[in-house]
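F.,

This is the one I mentioned.
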């Protein structure tokens, strides 16, 4: 690395041999690394497609591993991870040195893989150059808005974004070599799907992940002074997953002074893939914005680690698993509330496709409530079929000529 003074300004640049040394180090390290359990997303990403591929997701969910799986599929080693601290002074002009190194060393100069490339200011300009050269580019990063927004300004319509989540149940049983069923699903509901955690079950891994997301991903990145309050808000949201919340009430609870401040904080949580909100279903966008939202977390293992109150509420953990799976499968997710409530309304292209109610166990004390919320939504939205997902019950129920299928969540999770 050299420092130059130009017109009184300090100019720092990396030397080609320094970048080459880091490339060799990363190549040696990753070629020795286990590529892990193949992710379901691996089969959905077409390397021959000309669009720039963006893979986003929460930290430690396996994005880098998925990149390596794609890299192995493509052949060669056109790869650089910008999480490497030795690249902290890497600037946009250094990309052309890196491109030269990759062409000389990798043996495949048409497919490029970059991890956390958004750490380099101006990165989108280099990606555009590669795209103009008809190269195929695959990027991964933690923050959905950062990658999509910056790339979109210069390459609108030329990228496809894929979201990676912690292990699904199907990936979990493959990774753990367990059989599908209520026993393995109970383990999954308790531990969640962060790969590093389920390899050791060291609780500190989840706590350290949460702290890293709060401080590095939100507080530092957005210049927030009161880090403790952001952490408390995160714990509160984890403790209330599956529940409705009001922005006004939550603003008062945390003495934030302004609803806009809370809206910003919630958006930071969503951008980091830590929590998600869903609106109450309405054909009116104005009503969607006005009505209370419901909150869900990225992973039940992390929720269990953060919240003392939810560990015994298996119904809400079950509901959270269903929500994340719906996110994986695409479509727009809402909840329904009139006189009663239905947990999930799934809409595609402006048309309601499916209604899902979730409860741990159907019994005499809750049957009317669970069926009532679902059938009210079926009547209102003019659907003749609905689903109730439980821990381990199978049944078919006919209510006023409408069919309700009762299915164990673990079986439903294996369907796609």
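My design for it:
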């Amino acid at each position: 690395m050299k420092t130059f003074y130009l017109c009184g300004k300090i100019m720092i640049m990396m030397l080609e041999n320094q970048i080459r040394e880091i490339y060799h180090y990363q190549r040696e390290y990753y070629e020795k690394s286990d590529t892990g359990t193949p992710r379901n997303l691996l089969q959905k990403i077409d390397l021959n497609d000309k669009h720039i591929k963006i893979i986003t997701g929460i930290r430690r969910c396996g994005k880098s591993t998925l990149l390596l799986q794609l890299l192995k599929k493509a052949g060669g080693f056109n790869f650089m991870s910008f999480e490497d601290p030795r690249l902290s002074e890497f600037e946009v002009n250094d990309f052309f040195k890196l491109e030269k190194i990759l062409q000389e060393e990798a043996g495949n100069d048409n497919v490029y893989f970059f991890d956390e490339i958004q750490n380099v200011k101006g990165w989108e300009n280099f990606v555009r150059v590669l795209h103009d050269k008809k190269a195929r580019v695959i990027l991964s990063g933690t923050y959905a808005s950062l990658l999509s927004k910056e790339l979109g300004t210069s390459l609108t319509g030329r990228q496809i974004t894929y979201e990676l989540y912690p292990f699904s149940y199907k990936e979990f049983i493959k990774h753990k070599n367990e059989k599908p069923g209520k026993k393995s699903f109970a383990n999954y509901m308790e531990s969640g799907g962060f790969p590093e955690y389920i390899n050791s079950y060291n609780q500190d891994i989840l706590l350290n992940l949460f702290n890293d997301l709060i401080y590095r991903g939100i507080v530092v990145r957005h210049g927030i002074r009161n880090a403790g309050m952001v952490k408390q808000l995160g714990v509160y949201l984890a403790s209330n997953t599956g529940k409705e919340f009001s922005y006004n009430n939550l603003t008062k609870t945390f003495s934030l002074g302004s609803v806009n401040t809370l809206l910003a904080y919630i958006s930071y949580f969503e951008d980091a893939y830590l929590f998600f909100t869903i609106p109450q279903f309405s054909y009116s966008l104005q009503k969607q914005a006005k009505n209370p939202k419901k909150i869900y977390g990225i992973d039940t293992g992390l929720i269990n680690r953060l919240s003392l109150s939810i560990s015994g509420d298996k119904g809400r953990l079950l509901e959270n698993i269903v929500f994340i799976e719906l996110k994986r499968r695409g479509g727009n997710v809402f909840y329904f509330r009139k006189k009663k409530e239905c947990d999930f309304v799934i809409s595609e292209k402006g048309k309601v496709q499916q209604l899902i109610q979730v409860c741990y166990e159907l019994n005499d004390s809750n049957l009317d409530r669970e069926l009532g919320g679902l059938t009210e939504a079926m009547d209102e939205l003019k659907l003749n079929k609905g689903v109730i997902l439980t821990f381990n019950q199978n049944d078919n129920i006919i209510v006023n000529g409408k069919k309700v299928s009762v299915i164990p969540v673990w079986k439903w999770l294996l369907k796609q």
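The chain has a mean pLDDT of 92.

Talk soon.
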